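Section handout 9: paired folding examples.
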Amino acid sequence: MITRLETLTAALQTALGDKLVSATTALGEVTVVVKAEHLLAAGVILRDDKSLQFEQLIDLCGVDYSDHGEGAWQGARFAVVYHLLSIAHNWRVRLRVFAPDDDFPVMASVLDLWSSANWYEREAFDLYGIMFTGHPDLRRLLTDYGFVGHPFRKDFPLSGNVEMRYDPDQQRVIYQPVTIEPRVITPRIVREEHYADSEGFRKG
């Protein structure tokens, strides 16, 4: 008996054709990968093909694979993952697209395909530094305008790059280099011998 996931996978393979890099199933979900150059064409197919009809983008996020698999990852560093929902067929698919340039990750905006991508793409830009060509207003969304860097990148320092404070002499908020010295704190665990024998406690 053919399952719904098998039906969906077959429909994806047929509709996407040579634009499809891979289609895998894990934990009851289907993930398809297409190249960045085919993103918009694949998006139109996923949305408009009658056998798929993924009319709704329910989430979009960036991913930094630089430390994936404890450093064993050999592929492109940055990817954008799109979570799509078909209300007509009541099924979902995960679309993963890798940015071809690790130093300057760029992806086409899917805003014209799914209007909900607007803030999602701004968030991915803000947190990962992924650019979306064709986005009409690609500004930071969660960090402030003076923020330096992209905080969800694996190489972003834990203390950040700049700090903000109020300067009483200038009577305004200013940015300055971080004054916190980076250090690794190893917690110390204190164990008392015969803890269970101490006064006020009973042995189990």
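Moving on to protein 2 of 2.
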Amino acid sequence: MASTASLLKTEIARLARKVVRADTEALKRAVSKYRSEIAALKRRADALEQQLRHTGRVKASPNPPRSEDQASGFRFSPKGLASHRKRLGLSANDMGKLLGASGQSVYKWESGEARPRAANMPGIAAVRSLGRRDVAKILATLKNKN
């Protein structure tokens, strides 16, 4: 026959397992409920993203193209302005002098932080058709005036 100590020990272990099982069952139910809620939220987020894609494309640029750009037939591209300025060998300040703006404005146009005003668009279009020699002549006359 088993000793009293071992019987007491097995009974305590049995009761402890029973209590732990009851506690863990409640936690398992809660975890299951949370997982199903998370899955439902993910499905809803996917559906909303898909709906957003269908209703309208999300623009990468914070400044969408304006109607005056389309009306003049000239499309402004920050990357294009930067590459043309470098192709001409101009600093941003020199490009700003040609366009009647500051060098800081040119930097912001090139980085996409800002868009040129409608008054600057014809100048930008005109500079696109100029070569290095033409630009050098124009800058020389601008420096002579000052």
